[in-house]
């Protein structure tokens, strides 16, 4: 069965974000095909997609390499998210479904519970799911796709310190959901902008910290996830 290039793309992207493939390192089709247990065809297609997303660049005499974004490019990503996430929240207030609200409220309850327990790892995952669901509730596949790419790239370029008050952060999430549920787009926009402004201060560039660090792949060769 031919492995979808999208699955290979996800695997390579995840490993770039995790630092398995370091910034500036070469990405050869043959080596990647062996690593992920696939043929070179989906790898070639995946590299084209990742180049379009900004994770990969093609260099003369070197071929495909992991991109090396500048500090300014990294800062631009946070600015873009600061503009687009509030827009997504405002649209979600007009376009969300009951299913979206159910998921968002459930995530807020879990987040508040984990915040009381101090489960920081769980909170990071829950926060990602919250913002992904909020973007989906906007009813705009294009906006959702852009925000998803931004989250991937920001996770690649930045480490995020735990908030001083995780409970306060999840209270902000709950207020955003309340505004979305009432159909109050302007309040949803304003609350999301404020939430993003507070969260941005916890972001720290990981460029220097990642130098020389060796990490193991999240995806073993012959990944079961790519066999479906």
Main features:
228 residues; mainly alpha; two-stranded antiparallel sheet; elongated
Strand content: 5-15%
The gross shape turns out to be: elongated
Helix content: 55-70%
Number of DSSP helical runs: 10
Separation of termini? Answer: 9 Å
Secondary structure: number of strands: 4
| Average predicted local confidence, pLDDT | 88
Going across the major beta sheet, what is the strand order?
Answer: 1-2
Query: Which structural category do the helix and sheet elements fall into?
Result: mainly alpha
The parts where pLDDT drops under 50 for at least 5 residues are: 209-228
SSE ordering: HHHEEHHHHEHHEH
Q: Nearest-angstrom radius of gyration?
A: 19 Å
**Main sheet characteristics:** 2 strands, antiparallel
Structure report:
This protein is mainly alpha-helical. Helix content is 67%, strand content 6%. The strands form two sheets. It has a two-stranded antiparallel ribbon. A two-stranded antiparallel ribbon has the order 3-4. Strand 1 and strand 2 form a beta hairpin. The protein is elongated, with a radius of gyration of 19 Å. The relative contact order is 0.16. Mean pLDDT is 88; it is low at 209-228.
